[in-house]
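Entry 14. Structure prediction run on the chain below.
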Amino acid sequence: MIKLMKMLSLTITLGLVVSLGAPASVRATHDESAPIDYAQEGGDPNITATRVLGQVTQIDAQNKRIIVKTDAGSLVTVLLEEKTEYLRVPPGEKSLDKAVAITLAEIGVGDKVYARGHVSDDRKSVPAQKLIVMAKADIDKKHDQERAEWRRRGISGTITTLNPQSKEISIQARTREGLKTVVVAASDSTLFRRYAPDSVKFSDTKTSSFAELKTGDQLRALGDKSSDGTRFTAEQIVTGSFQTVGGTVKAVSPEANEIKIEVLGGKQQVTVVVNKDSLLRRIPPQVATFLVMRSQGSAGAAGPGGAPAPGAAPARPAGPPPGGPGGDRPQMQGGGDFQDMLERMPPLTLSDLKPGDVIAVSSTTGSDPSRLTAITLVSGVDVIIAALQSAGGARRGPALSTGLPAGVLDFGISQP
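Output returned:
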């Protein structure tokens, strides 16, 4: 994952409400037909004169009120009345056909809610006539199912050429056999989504089109691959313009969730902003060696210290297998999805960083080049550079815009 989401003016419909919390690909629009002017509404797209969308943070059953936090961070008190109607719906539903009546006692912290009523002038409270609820457990279950589907039927890569006439997109995809050109075929029914500048979360991408695609964009698609792996028929396509920057840590401010870095190979100072959706990981030395070998195409060679070969899964952090008991997530194979590999690397916190550490940060391309909102931030980059040099890659120059060796760290578009 996300920063994000200063939504465009659009008509919000019950489908959006009921699918709140589900990936953007399953969202629809609400039966309030008038477009919402967010400038007049106060800047938070989740609050209008007649409804509030958000996540439950506190429940005061005795005083019959709930505190809701919107995606934009606004806190609203939902006032419950004797006539308030409580309904629970499954995530992704676009109507109330499957809604079931519940009670206040069945609502929990973390649930997503749609509170309908006349919002106060200060936008701080709403007496709810109707409260539509999606349980956090149901949302998490659906999200896990969709992530599994994207892993099973997904592809990712960098756009190299575009053919608007045939709606075909050629990408460089990293496979178990190495880099490979794959033609992604779109159609009139393909759903396009795109990261907005400074956005982070996959689920907060915006409706897009083929016309917005650009060479150099990173792409993730869901669909079906041909038997020979050279073509991919896309049902959904998510794209974005990303940058990955390497730098030396100059200062860390955990309180402000910011890091000051100096870009490798230069004197440019950049402020890296970290939020709750940023992925922070530490690259272990053996994985760093593996990444270098993979970038050089040295399949089958074991790295120093027993590093895994590009046909084997890199070491995972200690603890239970990912995905719960038994480990139902697939092992990361050489040439596979780097973002999936990252998620299983050891976690990192800002307090773990200190001046002098070398990090890499991925972000969307925003309006202010001196500030980056981190999608992914990793430490251990100095180990990668050292391993690259020791492996005979000293001639590989850094990408001038990032300060990092080219072709090693495939950062960018996040998992669903």
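Confidence is low (pLDDT under 50) at residues 1-41, 298-336, 393-401.
Filed with the rest of this week's runs.
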